[in-house]
Amino acid sequence: MKQKIDKLGVVIALIAMPALLFVPFVTFKANRIVQGQPVWVFSALPAWAAACLTLVVVAVLVSAILKAGVLVRMIAACLGLVTVLVAIGLAASFLTPEGNSFARVSTASGFWMLLFAFSMLLIDALARLRPRPLVRIFLLLAGLVLLGLLARSGVWNELSLLKEFSSRADSFWREAWRHLALAVGSLVTAFAMGLPLGILCYRVERLRAAILNVLNVIQTIPSIALFGLLIAPLGWIAANLPGASELGIRGIGAAPAFIALVLYALLPIVANTVSGLVGVDAAVSNAAKGLGMTDGQILRRIELPLAMPAILTAIRIVLVQNIGMATIAALIGGGGFGVFVFQGIGQTATDLVLLGALPTVALALSAAVIMDALTELATRARKEIATA
Q: In CA terms, which of 49, 53, 166, 328 is 20 to 30 Å from 241?
C-alpha cells in the first residue's frame, strides 16, 4: 500500500485540506475602504455549493494521493481548478447584499492555496504526459478560452476584482496595449540589433569578449537605476533636438523604459546567437562549402537554421523578462499594467494590485509555453537538417 502513495499528492493534500477547513476563502468588506472580514468556505457559500466544493476537493486529493493514472490526475486537476474558480464567484454573489454596490468580496488565502495545489497537480500531470508542442499550445488556448467564458458568464461579476476592472475597463485595455507595445516592441528592436551583432561576434572572434562584457555590465545595472540614468540624456535630447519631443522622446515616459528594455534584451540574444552558431558542426559547414555555397548562403541556409533553437531560447527569455520588467515602467510614466499595481500599493487595494499583476503573469506564462513549443519544433527541425 505504501508504494501506491504519491509524495507530491500528499504535499498537495497538506496544502488543500487546511485551505478548505481552516483558512479564509474570501474577505468581505462593507465598502472599498474599511478593513475586511475573513469568511471561511462553509460560511461563504450556500450549503449545496460548499458540499459540492468539498466533494470535488476530496475526490481530487484521493486521485493525487493514490497515484491514479496520469490522464485521470490531469482531468481531476482541471475539475478542481474549474470548481474553485466557479466557487469564488458564487461566494461573491452569496455574500453581497442584493442591490448593494458598495460591498466588496475579495479572494483570500484559502482560494489561492486551493488554486496553487490544483495547479501543482495539473503541471505534474502535464510533465508526465509530455504532450507535443502543438498540443501544449492548444491546451493553453483552451484554458484561456475557458477563463474568458467564465468571465463572460457573469459568475465573477460580484468579485471586487471584476468591479475594479469594470470601473477601469477603458484604462485597462489602454494600459494593456502599452504593456504589449513595450514588451514586444523592445524584443523586436533588440532582435533586429542583437542578431547581426551576434553574427559579428561569431565571425570576428577578437570582438566577442569585448562586446559580451559590455552587454554583461549593462545587464547587471538594476532596472530602476537604468531608468534613472536614461532620464537626463533623453531629457536633453527632447529639449535640444527639434522634433524629438513630438516623436515621444522625453526624460520620462515610454522612451526611457523602451530603451532600457532593449538594452537588457541584447545580452541573451547576442550570447545565444554566438553559442548557437559556435555549436554548429564544422563538418556540416565544410560540406556545404564543398558544394560551392558562399559564406552568406551557408549562414542563411545552414548555420542560422541549426542555431535557431538557441536563438528561440533567447527570445523566450527576453520576452518573459520584458513582460515582467515592463511593469516597472509605470514608475517613470511608461504605462502598462504596472499603473494598476502601483496605484493599488499606494491605496492599499489588493484587488487593484491583482488587476495589474494577474494579466502580467498570464502574459508571461503564455509567452513561455508558446516559445517553449516553438523551440522544441526548431530542435526537431535541426535534427532533421543535421541528418539529411
A: 328
